[in-house]
Design goal:
Elements: E1 4-8, H1 12-24, E2 28-32, H2 38-44, E3 49-53, H3 61-68, E4 76-80, H4 85-93, E5 98-101, H5 106-120, H6 134-137, E6 138-141, E7 146-149, E8 152-153, H7 158-169, E9 175-176, H8 177-184, H9 193-210, E10 217-220, E11 224-227
Parallel strand pairs: 1-2, 1-3, 3-4, 4-5
Antiparallel strand pairs: 6-7, 7-8, 9-11, 10-11
Bound molecules: calcium ion.
Calcium ion binds near residues 9, 10, 11, 53 and 56.
Length: about 240
């Protein structure tokens, strides 16, 4: 299945370079030169990730993400012409997943796109975004494939990382074992479904070494698993 990346940028030369690099990686590319039609596009199409320029002719990328975030959990990489810290902080606080400063290498951008998609799984971005408060106790380093819990590296295996990454991006949402398997495994196989239980057990054991009372992952009997809905809220 080809994943679709939406590029929102009005400079044709930059669009062309990104399109070429991303198509080389096997993505389908959708292009919008303005921000105005982006919400309608997200409603209509299955977009796996957005590359969003901050400088658009009709609306800034920072304004646009405020409209996108309440409704769509799609990962967003900002493009910015300024290397200043302000853009960076604003972008990530507003719910961006990463940012790239112009001029940039299209190959590096493609690598970041792939890293983010590995982390969040290929689809199902319609839903609430990651709770900002959860980021206080959870930190994901997608480049190194590490997840930190209360500042401690969980030292997860590949599948544990994939599973926990999917749960973290969708607090409160219940995933069936089959669904988790499909999101976390490159080549799903029905016989592997029970191994989800084993991986969840390992993840829980690692969490409990850090917080013995930990109940971050909730079992929904006969259905699957979810990250605790209120996990990450300060009490
Ligand atoms: Ca622009």
């Amino acid at each position: 299945m080809k994943l679709t990346i939406l590029i929102v940028e009005d400079e044709p030369a930059i669009v062309d370079a990104m399109q070429y690099a991303l198509e080389e990686e096997g993505f389908t590319i959708n292009i919008s030169a303005t921000g105005g039609e982006v919400l309608a596009l997200l409603e209509r199409q299955d977009i796996s990730l957005i590359i969003l320029d901050i400088g658009l002719p009709d609306i800034t990328g920072l304004e646009l993400i405020k409209l996108i975030r309440p409704r769509f959990n799609v990962p967003i990489i900002f493009l910015t012409a300024r290397s200043g810290e302000i853009d960076r902080v604003l972008g990530l606080e507003l719910g961006g997943d990463d940012y790239v400063v112009k001029p940039f290498s299209p190959r590096e951008l493609a690598a970041r796109v792939k890293a983010i998609l590995r982390r969040v799984g290929p689809s199902d971005h319609k839903g609430p975004p990651v709770a900002a408060a959860a980021q206080v106790i959870w930190r994901v380093d997608a480049d190194r494939r590490q997840i930190f819990y209360h500042g401690v590296d969980l030292e997860l295996s590949r599948y544990e990382y994939n599973i926990l990454g999917v749960l973290l991006h969708n607090p409160g949402r219940v995933f069936t074992r089959e669904h988790l398997m499909r999101l976390a495994w490159e080549e799903p196989d029905a016989s592997m479904e029970r191994t989800v239980d084993a991986h969840i057990k390992n993840i829980r054991a690692k969490l409990k070494t850090i917080d013995p009372d930990d109940e971050a992952i909730v079992t929904h009997r006969g259905v699957g698993y979810a990250l605790h809905e209120h996990h990450g809220e300060r009490s």
